[in-house]
Write a structure and sequence with these properties.
about 375 residues; 1 helix; about 0% helix; WD40_rpt; WD40 repeat-like protein; WD40_repeat_dom_sf
């Protein structure tokens, strides 16, 4: 962590949080003075709005003119217990919803609005005004963990380490006992038939099928505990990308062949070679590791900033911002070979990585470009 003196906020905009839209074609950034929208492919500015106060999180509705806003930062524009649906065509709030406690995160699609509170998830139809469908109690969820797909939404359950999946069409509920420790990250694939989870330990990533809710794979990110920032499936669901506070981007192979080799490690390709077949050794010698990895930038940040607490029950920091800390390591796939890693904060960065093969036929990740998108 960089320990240089605290930067003067007058030196430039400060990105409180960042979020991709549904197809990763754009990403929205919440600022101390408003919000901005950028084109993912190039990192170029697409839209800038000054609203006269801080926005803690901004969630785009696809590529439409509607953006869900929650107040945040030092001088919030809106109360942190209200979600505002902003119509950028008229540059006014079209409708809003008020809650009894601060909002941790919002997810939005053409059909549904999901509002995440510390101990509750509310599910609404995207009507005007939004119509409540259901709400559920959860364990402490300060990071606003919630993944919204076309037909389902996944979020923490009432028990530690549990994932609850709500079918938006039928109203059915499914439960996955994913981890013994509190959840730190979860993701759905585009088809809605895979769920990836990580706990606050950050060493093991688990893959679950839906609707059977059975575990189909387990991957080892590393041996040392880490804060998992983001999980993201490639468009074809053949790869899973993972970032952590180790400043490392990992890619895991989800192909059927890889799943088979995970059950019976191949010493020729496994990280630990012949040791993967030796009985009685610790499990990390036989676990399934990433097939490619690269370093991404956390960015230089002021004194007192940290990626996040190790604990998934932590609830402090910047008001109105998911997890209380600027977004870091957010992953968005452009296609099956190209992915982005986005970070907020004083040193907000956009980085593009490409998956390819080296001369030996081994998969490698290389950084194709980067920029400080607020400059």
């Amino acid at each position: 962590m960089n320990t240089r003196p605290i930067l003067d906020s007058a030196s430039g905009p400060y990105a409180l949080s960042a979020s991709f839209n549904a197809d990763n074609s754009c990403f929205s950034v919440a600022l101390e003075s408003g919000f901005r929208v950028f084109t993912s492919k190039s990192g170029d500015l697409k839209l800038a709005r000054e609203v006269g106060g801080g926005i803690g999180c901004a969630e785009m509705l696809g590529t439409t003119r509607y953006i869900a806003l929650v107040g945040g930062g030092k001088q919030p524009k809106f109360p942190q217990n209200k979600v505002q649906i902003w119509n950028d065509a008229t540059q006014v709030v079209a409708t809003s919803l008020e809650f009894k406690t601060p909002i941790q995160r919002v997810r939005i699609s053409q059909s549904h609005l999901i509002v995440v509170l510390l101990n509750n998830v509310g599910i609404y139809k995207m009507t005007s005004p939004p119509e409540k469908v259901a709400d559920y109690e959860t364990v402490n969820n300060p990071f606003g963990l919630c993944s919204l797909g076309k037909d389902i939404v996944a979020f923490p359950g009432r028990a530690i380490g549990q994932v609850k999946i709500f079918d938006l069409m039928s109203g059915n509920i499914s439960i996955i006992p994913a981890h013994e420790s509190p959840l730190r990250a979860l993701a759905l694939n585009q088809r809605g038939d895979l769920v990836a989870t990580a706990s606050e330990q950050g060493t093991i990533i688990r893959l679950w099928s839906f609707p059977s809710c059975t575990k189909i794979a387990e991957f080892r990110r590393g041996v040392d505990p880490a804060v998992i920032f983001s999980l993201s499936f490639s468009p074809s669901s053949t790869m899973l990308a993972v970032t952590s506070d180790k400043s490392t981007l990992h890619l895991f192979d989800l192909s059927p062949e890889a799943s088979a080799s995970a059950l019976e490690p191949d010493p020729k390709t496994h990280k630990w070679g012949i040791l993967s077949k030796v009985p009685l050794l610790p499990r990390q010698f036989s676990d399934n590791y990433s097939v490619a990895a690269a370093k991404f930038e956390l960015g230089d940040e002021p004194v007192g900033w940290g990626p996040a607490s190790k604990s998934a029950t932590f609830n402090a920091g910047i008001p109105g911002v998911p997890g209380g800390r600027p977004t870091k390591g957010l992953i968005g796939w452009l296609d099956d070979q190209t992915l982005l890693v986005i970070g907020a904060g004083q040193d907000a960065r956009w980085e593009k990585f490409v998956l390819t093969f080296d001369s030996d036929g081994k998969r490698v990740l290389f950084k194709k470009g980067w920029r400080k998108y607020l400059d």
